[in-house]
Amino acid sequence: MRAPIGFRISNRRKSLRISQAELARLVGISPSYLNLIENNKRDIGGALLQRVAQHLGIEVNSLDGSDEQKLLQDLEEAYADPMVESLPFQHDERRQLVAQYPASAMAVARMHRAYVDARSSADAYAHRLRSDPLLNQMLHQILSGITAVRSSAEILEDVPDIDEAERHKFLSAIGREARILGDVARSLIGQFEVTSQAARTVSTLREIDDLIIERQNYFPQLEAMAEELRRSVEMQGPFGPAVLVDVLERQFGVVTRIGGRPSVPDFPGQYRFDAESGTMWFQGTTTLATRQFQLARLLGELLAAEVMRQTLDGAVLTNPASRRLAARALGSYLAGAIVFPYAQFLEAAEATAYDIDQLREKFGGSFEQVAHRLVSLRRPGAEGIPFGFLRSDPAGRLTKHFPLPGLLLPNSGHACPLWAIYGAFRQPDTIVRQAVRFSDGSRYLFLARSLQHRPGSYRDQPNLISVMLACDVRHADRTVYGSGLDLMDQSADVPVGPSCRLCPRRACPARQEEMLTPGGEASVTRLPLIPREFGLGDLG
After folding, report:
1. H or E element in which residue 170 lies
2. Quick one: which of 423, 424, 422, 474 has its CA closest to 445?
3. Which of 39-48, 263-272, 278-287, 519-528: highest mean pLDDT?
4. Band of pLDDT at residue 441, cut at 50, 70 and 90
5. How far apart, in Å, are the Cα atoms of 234 and each of 163, 360, 373, 374?
6. Which residue in 32, 128, 223, 498 has a CA-CA distance of 20 to 30 Å to 519?
7. Following DSSP, what letter does each residue of 423-480 receive, concatenated?
8. What is the DSSP string of 315-367?
9. Residue 483 in 3-state DSSP?
10. Residue 87 half-sphere exposure, CB side, CA atoms within 13 Å?
11. Distance set, CA 452 to CA 286, 287, 393, 455 (Å)
């Protein structure tokens, strides 16, 4: 769904009491063309968007759709909820709500999020009550205790001439049962608190998504610190794993060990830092790119702890789990900025037409690391091509994402099964490119590749993932991946949607879930093919 840039321009112009003709004259276009823009029938970007923003006295970020995209995405999820999906919503109702009444749109999104969180907690509690024998036993104890207390109390109430010894016996029984009830109730509450913590996982990941999207995946303080750390490392020798190992050992006493058994038995990961022993352990089969990246992360986390703390303090993170995972995400960002210095990386990206394989060779990174760094090239005045990013496992779960203004990346359910991110699993070690067109006419270039993390031994199963980058088709000719594509020929585009439940294409043969339509009409229901859940993963 296109972000309502035109509506935002129109509202701002009207609030400043500037006529359409006057604004058109100031920015150097015709009033009729401005009218098309304001009605969201023409795209606007580049220098023209900057001139419009300048004359309206507003930041470009407030007009280019990035502010609205996350809110649109949340509304799409809210309107697709089974509780309201049958209501006769208009086709562009959500977009107009975001453009004209952003506070009301935000209220709807926040209430839906609160409702989802409450429902998740209630479902978790109900599941525990139904399936957990310990909780059933506790509830039985509580009911038995209440029955015993009530029985003794009724005897004391109904038998006025009971002797003192018997009265004391019943009072002792009531006190004893009451103490037992208290202990059982505290245990029960403790069990529910554990369940509640688990149920807040979705909220935790949402908060981290909000932090990254709010900052447009660009953190200037971390970029500045990364440049300083990179310079200090290069003073010791050519940047790479060997120098990083040496710096970590000399400055922090960290010993790097490759191969053998980790300090924690049965640890499943490819690497682990044991703070107690000061040991950085890598699986023997980890690649040089993984070692370089994780050593850079460790160095950054040790030397830039205060900068990272300040960044976290400025974010809305409501629980320790959110803060811990956000710190991990910022550590990955800092490591990427150290391994791929902003100015050098952007220059190389432009020079190679964003050829990911060439960038991997030049900077010694992995495909996923390079793709993720491309997404963070958002420095004002020195932006790269704006990319969206997705990562999936073979089951179709999207385990990492960063949206692109205008491109709806699903917040729940599963992505469109026609997307290249899933097709890449059928073509290993090959970049799959795909020109796609959504039902609103927006067009994008999708690039995806499946990757395999090396197993630790013959007995281990390989860990497969698929990584996808997406950019507006207008930027495709700036990339090597647009070569040979007739970008003007829309007949070659693959018609797609964000996900089956949000896609209005009735005749799509790949549909796996029924379509949401006004009045509750739906296509034939099929079992979902690709489940999905969000999370944060480290770059390897």
Report:
1. helix 164-199
2. 474
3. 278-287
4. confident
5. 91, 19, 20, 23
6. 498
7. HGGGSTT--EEEEEE-TTS-EEEEEEEEEEEPPSSTTSPPEEEEEEEEEEGGGGGGSG
8. S---SHHHHHHHHHHHHHHHHHHHHS-HHHHHHHHHHTTS-HHHHHHHHT--H
9. coil
10. 11
11. 11, 11, 10, 9
414 closest CA partner among 533, 537, 535: 533
Place of tokens 């992360």: 297
Q: Residue 346 is encoded by which pair of tokens? A: 């952007």
| Residues pairing with 446 in the sheet | 434, 470
H/E element, 518: none
Specify the amino acid at residue 172: S
Reduced to 3 states (helix: H, G, I; strand: E, B; else coil), residue 82 is coil
Question: Of 407, 389, 437, 473, whose CA–CA distance to 69 is shortest?
Answer: 407
Identify the H or E element spanning 258: strand 255-258
Query: Residue 453: what are its φ and ψ, rounded to 5°?
Result: -75, 135
Token pair 């009045």 in the structure block, residue: 519
Say how far apart CA 404 and CA 374 lie, in whole Å. 12
Question: Does an H or E element contain 421, and which?
Answer: helix 420-423
pLDDT per residue as tens digits for the range 329-376: 899 999 999 999 999 999 999 999 999 999 999 999 999 999 999 999
Decide if 413 contacts 494 (C-beta within 8 A): no
Please list, in sequence order, all residues whose beta carbon lies within 8 angstroms of the beta carbon of residue 73, skipping any fewer than 6 positions away: 403, 408, 409, 411
Angle 389-393-395 (CA atoms, 0-180°, nearest 5)? 130
- Separation of alpha carbons 424 and 454, rounded Å: 18
- Can you state the percent helix, strand and coil of the chain, rounding each to 5? 55, 10, 35
Lowest mean pLDDT among 5-19, 205-219, 289-303, 311-325: 205-219
Q: Which of 446, 249, 495, 227 is nearest to 339 (CA)?
A: 227
| 357, two tokens | 């394989």
Tens of pLDDT along 496-510?
Answer: 988 877 777 778 888
- The rounded distance, in Å, linking the Cα atoms of 159 and 153 is 10
HEC-encoded secondary structure of 495-516? ECCCCHHHCCCCCCCCCCCCCC
CA dist 340 → 305, 319, 388, 478 (Å): 20, 32, 18, 20
Q: How many CA atoms are closer than 13 Å to the CA of 506, on its beta-carbon side? A: 4
The C-alpha atoms of residue 93 and residue 91 are separated, in whole angstroms, by 6
pTM above 0.70, yes or no: no
CA-based nearest residue to 364, from 238, 235, 248:
238
